[in-house]
Amino acid sequence: TLSCPAYPQDHIMKEDFEVVARKELGETLEVIKESIDKFRKLLQEETNLRPPPDYVLLMFLRARKYRVDDAVKSLKNFFRLRSSHPEYYDNFLPSAVDYQTITREHKLFLLSKDRDSQGRIVGLARYGAWNSSICSLNELTKSVLMAVECVLLEEETQIRGIVAVDDLAGLGMHHIIHMTPGFFRVAIAIAQDAYPVRIKAFYIVNAPAVFEGIFNLLIKPFLSEKLKERVSG
């Protein structure tokens, strides 16, 4: 399940979080309790899935605006994704990759220290700056996944969402040959139907011409209409 040592499980939301949660998600204490109860009852029918703790269920409920059936589907997709991609999820620990080198020294993936004017975290991926002398593409993707899972444990992020920026400056065929269909499936699953994330905007910047064909062929057809509207570049 999602886990991060720094997560304060007894965290109390600031008042403004509660206002946003009520306005955008329809969240109240009563809705939370009723939805978690229904979520747990539906999970009892899933004999191959061990129900996670309430704070994880709440993450999926918020991401799906308390549509419990959709939250169940998303949770199942989350576990299915993890089991079907051992290249990313086996030994899923920062110690398993050179996390500091990837994120701090080479800045291949960054999360903003401060939130934007709407309280959203901004995530920046720089796949065009990657090369195999730094790390493997799988190690970079694993680092991105760990950072995303950790930040999603913050209640403000669950409620206000994330702005994603993909800076493709320097991207060439020597990068693209490493990007398998599985790589793109994972990327789409994270953004759309397997992670408890609210992507409020997705910017693709400095994209070379070759990427347009890849995007139109391997990515865009599998995006929801809502996500297509939020992608720009």
From TrEMBL:
Q: Which GO terms describe its molecular function?
A: phosphatidylinositol bisphosphate binding
- Cited CDD domains: SEC14
**GO CC: one term?**
membrane
Looking up SUPFAM superfamilies in the UniProt record yields: CRAL/TRIO domain (SSF52087), CRAL/TRIO N-terminal domain (SSF46938)
> Which residue intervals define the domain CRAL-TRIO in the entry?
99-233
Judging by the UniProt lineage, the source's domain of life is: Eukaryota
The name this protein goes by in its record: Putative transporter
Q: Name the source organism.
A: Rhipicephalus microplus
Which lineage ranks, top first, belong to the organism behind this chain?
Answer: Eukaryota, Metazoa, Ecdysozoa, Arthropoda, Chelicerata
